[in-house]
């Protein structure tokens, strides 16, 4: 299934960083919404010359790699994938918020796919995609940091994507930001007593109407501190998104950190699936 929503809509004041040639991970250029989550990637699915209506997201972790959910790769049918970077509003050619206008979006083909070998349709729902060329780093395209340290019981995450808005039932055209509190493992299993909650997952959310949803799969669950860190990959949850007492379920990136790092340095390239590129 797929997950999402926004509720953070305020952006007051704009402060900027001077962009380095290789910017530090996990930093946004300003508090303006058009700069938020510059690591969020929209995945385009193509079958031949036709683009399909499948909607999944991913997260830029370095200039050549994005992380998404394995079910975003194994479930849809496609012949080509394109990573769309620097996107904010899917319905507009030019994205401007409070006087700040984004650069033109960047579209880069995916050339290799590495799905976790343990993925069975539910567990180990994570994949790394290699881009055909380097993503340019700008104020609107930046990598996120990988997770470090420990999660505290009062951790508050933020998920993001262009998925369905819970209860309202339509897809968002703008990049959403969803505040989601961490749930304990025992609480999460109790909430889903009739289902098996996959191991190596994080549960977060559970508030009425505030949730990831269909179309948000593969997107990031982020912990903000000094820098933004990718702690989860949107995986699954209650079929009725935003139902109180039922958190979303996210692949725990920290558990797969070594596997991810191996993929980033090319150590898993012999296991990668190659795609056609244009």
Automatic annotation (TrEMBL):
PROSITE patterns membership: TRYPSIN_DOM (PS50240), TRYPSIN_HIS (PS00134), TRYPSIN_SER (PS00135)
Cited InterPro entries: Peptidase_S1_PA (IPR009003), Peptidase_S1_PA_chymotrypsin (IPR043504), Peptidase_S1A (IPR001314), Ser/Thr_Proteases_Immune/Dev (IPR051487), Trypsin_dom (IPR001254), TRYPSIN_HIS (IPR018114), TRYPSIN_SER (IPR033116)
Signal peptide: 1-16
GO MF entry, a single one: serine-type endopeptidase activity
Sorted UniProt keywords: Disulfide bond, Glycoprotein, Hydrolase, Protease, Serine protease, Signal
Residue ranges of domain Peptidase S1 in the record: 24-265
Gene Ontology BP terms: proteolysis
Sequence similarity: Belongs to the peptidase S1 family. CLIP subfamily.
Protein name: SFRICE_013123
């Amino acid at each position: 299934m797929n997950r999402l929503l926004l509720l953070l809509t305020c952006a007051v004041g704009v402060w900027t960083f001077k962009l380095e040639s290789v910017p530090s991970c996990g930093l946004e250029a300003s508090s303006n919404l058009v700069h938020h989550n510059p690591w969020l990637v929209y995945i385009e699915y193509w079958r031949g010359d036709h683009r399909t209506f499948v909607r999944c997201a991913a997260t830029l972790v370095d200039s050549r790699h994005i992380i998404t959910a394995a079910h975003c790769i194994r479930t849809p049918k496609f012949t080509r994938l394109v990573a769309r970077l620097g996107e904010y509003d899917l319905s507009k050619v030019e994205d401007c918020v409070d006087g700040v206008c984004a650069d033109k979006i960047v579209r880069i083909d995916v050339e290799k796919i590495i799905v976790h070998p343990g993925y069975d349709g539910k567990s180990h729902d994570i994949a790394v995609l290699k881009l055909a060329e380097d993503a340019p780093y700008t104020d609107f395209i930046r990598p996120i940091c990988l997770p470090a340290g420990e999660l505290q019981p009062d951790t508050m995450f933020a998920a993001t994507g262009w998925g369905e808005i819970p209860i309202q039932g339509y897809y968002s055209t703008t990049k959403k930001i969803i505040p989601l509190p961490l749930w304990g493992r025992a609480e999460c299993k109790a909430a889903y007593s009739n289902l098996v909650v996959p191991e190596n997952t994080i549960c977060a959310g559970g508030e009425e109407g505030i949730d990831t949803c269909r179309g948000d799969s593969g997107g990031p669950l982020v912990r903000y501190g000094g820098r933004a860190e990718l702690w989860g990959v949107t995986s699954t949850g209650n079929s009725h998104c935003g139902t109180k007492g039922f958190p979303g379920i996210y692949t725990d990136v920290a558990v797969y950190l070594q596997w991810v790092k191996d993929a980033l340095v090319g150590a898993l390239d012999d296991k990668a699936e190659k795609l056609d590129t244009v």
